[in-house]
Amino acid sequence: MCHVIVTCRSMLWTLLSIVAAFGELIAFMSTDWLVGYPRTPDAVFGSHGATAAGEAYRPTLGIYGRCIKLPQMQRGILCGPYAFRFGEIASGFWQATSIFLAAGILLLCAVAFISIFTMCFQSIMKKSIFNVCGLLQGIAGLFLILGLMLYPAGWGSDKVQVYCGLDAAPYRAGLCSMGWAFYTAMGGTVLTFICAVFSAQAEIATSSDKVQEEIEEGKSLICLL
């Protein structure tokens, strides 16, 4: 018989796991990792900013995408990938970042999917599903940390210098500032480790004595605080 077990701690862990996975996925796909210095569409790029007069805007650069305003566009900013193949990503460090982030996000999405079914299934191959998911989240967190540590090492690439000026160098953003996607990725990484630790509390909540008493009474739907 399938016993549906719902506790506050298990539901909170499920919710946080989903938030962490989607947060990292959205950050990875975003172009707002670096925010370039203000310039106009027809500006001349230099180490001290744009030299042409007019309405300024700030382009953004992601791991594989960018947002720019072209001279022929009267309104709006064009966003899309600048790299259509893996080898076209700005630097080898960003290629490594892509691999580590993608691996971490894949694990997080798998855990988020599995967490939805933990109300009905609390074990897999005689192992606690919460412990298994917590381990996967810990591994995903390590992948994410490696990716975020390697990301600033790619700031010295030619692509970044176009957006951030000639002063841009590894671990020095030059005239650029960090965009919301970078901070979202950092927050998602912290939340991933919180979920990994909190999975133990979800396991304790779903295997407590109160839950066992409810099962022995023949209840199939068990809701506990």
UniProtKB/TrEMBL annotation:
Q: Name one GO biological process term.
A: single fertilization
Pfam families noted in UniProt: L_HMGIC_fpl (PF10242)
Q: How does it sit in the membrane?
A: Multi-pass membrane protein
Q: Which residues form a coiled coil?
A: none
Where in or outside the cell it occurs: the entry states:
Membrane
Give the family per the record: Belongs to the LHFP family.
Name of this protein: LHFPL tetraspan subfamily member 2a
Q: Which organism is it from?
A: Cyprinodon variegatus
Query: Lineage in the entry?
Result: Eukaryota, Metazoa, Chordata, Craniata, Vertebrata
